[in-house]
Amino acid sequence: MAEKNTQSSRSTADDGANKKEAVAKTNGPTGALVLDQAQLEKDAGAGLSNVTKDDLTIPRLKALMATSPEVLKSKPQYVEGAQPGMILNTVTQEVYDGDKGILVIPCSFVSNFVEWSPLGEGSNAPINIYSSKSDILSKTTRDPRTNRDMLESGNYIERNANHFVLIYDEETSSSQPALLTFKSTGLKTSRKWVSLMMSATVKGSKGSFTPPSFALTYRLKTTQESNDKGSWVAWAISRESQLKDAGVYQQAREFKDKVGKDELKFAQPPKEVPSQSNKEETPF
Fold first, then answer.
1. Which of the pair, 4 or 111, is modelled with greater confidence?
2. What is the spatial distance between Cα 237 and Cα 201, in angstroms, rounded to a whole number?
3. How far is Cα 127 from Cα 254, in angstroms, rounded to an integer?
4. Which string of b and e fits 122-138 if b means at least 16 CB within 10 Å?
5. Separation CA 233–CA 86 (nearest Å)
6. 156: closest CA among 284, 281, 279, 276?
7. Helix, coil or strand: residue 113
8. CB-count burial class (<10 Å; 0-12, 13-18, 19+) for 215
9. In sequence order, what E strands does the chain have?
10. CA 145, CA 148: separation in Å to the nearest integer?
11. Quick check: 259 and 106 in contact, CB under 8 A?
């Protein structure tokens, strides 16, 4: 009987130790209970139900130059670790190695015309934004000195090529939306990229066809370009491979649909005053 009591006591003690161990595994480093991941999934999206497109901004991808405020420690916009030639996410403030580049998935393309006040005057925000179908260019005159399309008001019109992409991490299968805008001399890179997308083919059951733009990934790097007016950091884009992740493909398609339905609000890059080493306006 004594032996049975001893065994019962040991069993009770072991059960208590196991329960304490189980409780300990659910406790954080400070003794607080660890939040169950299932609860997070249950509350997915809570607290954001009233957010509209006017409350959001799409991150822009920016190629950093020597004159970019993000690389100058004396500027309030300085980003820790940012250097010329790097790629900046303007919302998360992440910087990427421009030589290595990043993978992006092109989801949608929108071109427009932007009206700016003369350099050195007014704010850095656009005066007006016109759709690609606008006849605003017919109301301009080309300035042979600056090569800008000038309105009678003294403002000038600039064409922007906006590429909506997903920044894609193959290792984690994670993605995040971003906007890449080309202007000025950067438009030639945009045209090459569009041509590259349209020239892609995939073999199907009925022969070859042009896949959706978001079925392929592209490597986005930076490079140095120059002309008789100065030098700048430009984009270099190459095709990588066909997307394999069905979940990311669906995200890309949904992003494309949001852009098409005008469910996203995006700002144009601010007007930048050219530096002494680059008399031509920044091409992105």
1. 111
2. 18
3. 31
4. eeeebbeebeeeeebee
5. 9
6. 281
7. strand
8. middle
9. 61-63, 87-89, 95-96, 102-116, 128-131, 141-142, 149-150, 156-169, 174-183, 202-204, 207-209, 216-227, 230-242
10. 8
11. no
Query: What whole-number distance in Å separates Cα of residue 104 and Cα of residue 169?
Result: 9
Select from 214, 186, 213, 187 the least CA-distant residue to 199. Answer: 213
Q: What is the pLDDT of residues 153-177, one digit of tens each?
A: 999 999 999 999 999 999 999 999 9
Indicate the pTM of the whole model.
0.78
Domain residue ranges in the chain: 2-42, 59-260
Q: Token pair for residue 272?
A: 């930048």
Contacts of 111 by beta carbon, 8 Å cutoff, 6+ apart: 132, 159, 160, 161, 162
∠ Cα 229 235 241 (to 5°): 160
Cβ atoms of residues 83 and 62 within 8 Å: no
**57 phi and psi, to 5 degrees?**
-140, 140
Amino acid at 230: G
Residue with the two structure tokens 């997308």: 197
Instruction: Look at residue 140 in the predicted model and tell me its pLDDT.
Output: 97
Number of C-beta neighbours around residue 112 at 10 A:
19
